[in-house]
């Protein structure tokens, strides 16, 4: 593919200078249109030579309005990046809606080096390309525009440029170890890149192969492609800023259309046994024993660089907070924290809905508990009409991919749904009204949500069916009895954590 490409096309400096004023104006107008349309843009620069990528970055940094541009350069992983799932470092730097993210090296770079230097087998390489394709699909379906440029030059040109770089440190250019690795394994590197392109080239995230033998031709071709692609993209979407409408306000449909169909058969929750009565035998003694065990296991996990991530979902007043407090009483606050999820901030709305959850993924050995989570997309946002039908439906796949990456990194992920019936919830609401220090927990939304109980139960049923995977199954906890629920959660956590630790022995 690349080796057979015709190289050596060029543009004279004189012609380049003639074209520059018009192209710079068009590029700025293109950037303004993207801002007005609230479209996030990802520009990925990959290729044979770091000098090519660096010069294109410098050019775009000069021609774009830098107030709307974010330049990201990725080299070797930092300790914090290495201790988190593979894509964490990228999600952490994704541009907000209306902004442009320029990636000097990307989620492709490291995999190409590893594959070309025989540090990675073909199957592992292909698996990672599938994850990349899923990532780019997730971003594109959320409204992002993705442009991927492969800046290609011959082996002879690569060798010549490295010689120039060695003698040109005074100009600020420095060759990297990766440049010499690519030159040494040039043929394997190109074959790996060709395979990556074949596996990840899709209409919503296409590759553009650019002849980089001549600097002027390379630069102008990249600029022209950006302008053309953006113009085409914007012509197919409304010019008004609607990218965040689905998250920031209910969809503009009738109330009947917003509500999911009521179930015609029992749901998973309706079949859950709520027969526990009274306090479990020796509750406080059993609780203390489980907490002591969890303290020991959590420190063992910390020293083995194993994280646990807990997701708590459930009805209002189902006891999520109480269960979380019993866990945090046992886990040292230096290695664990609780993330309480509320309505998204303006900054969070400006990104993909998973962005704010990726930011809080703990480093290896640390632990995070989510009090409500990314499942809001398929629960409250679905039922209340904050997410369009196609948005919450595709979220099942996006969430499964997200959780698979957490597991692949070596973390333990447990998901708890705490279930109470309507009568028990009503009793707890009334009790909160009469207890001064609990009154703040009860809001108008809590009362209003009771009117949508059946809709929520349908949504929960679908959520469990679509996202209870073999690597991240749901644990449904009967929680009419708080004490039974707390014991059940702690037993499940201790059991799964103990098994995880044994796997590493």
Descriptive account of the structure:
By secondary structure, the protein is of the alpha/beta class. The chain folds into 2 domains: 223 residues, P-loop containing nucleotide triphosphate hydrolases (Rossmann fold, 3-Layer(aba) Sandwich); 218 residues, Rossmann fold (3-Layer(aba) Sandwich), CATH 3.40.50. The protein has 22 helices and 10 strands. It has a 5-stranded parallel sheet, with helices on both faces. The chain has a 5-stranded parallel sheet with strand order 7-8-6-9-10, sandwiched between helices. The protein is elongated.
Number of domains: 2
Number of strands: 10
By CATH reckoning, the class of the largest domain would read Alpha Beta
Radius of gyration: 26 Å
Examine the coordinates and then state which fold CATH places here, giving the name of the CATH topology of the largest domain. Answer: Rossmann fold
Q: Superfamily at the CATH H level of the largest domain? A: P-loop containing nucleotide triphosphate hydrolases
Biggest sheet layout: 5 strands, parallel
CATH architecture of the largest domain: 3-Layer(aba) Sandwich
Q: Which structural class matches the secondary elements?
A: alpha/beta
Percentage of residues in helical conformation: 40-55%
Query: Would you identify the regions where 5 or more consecutive residues have pLDDT less than 50?
Result: 239-263
GO molecular function: transferase activity
Organism: Celerinatantimonas yamalensis
Keywords: Transferase
Enzyme class: transferase
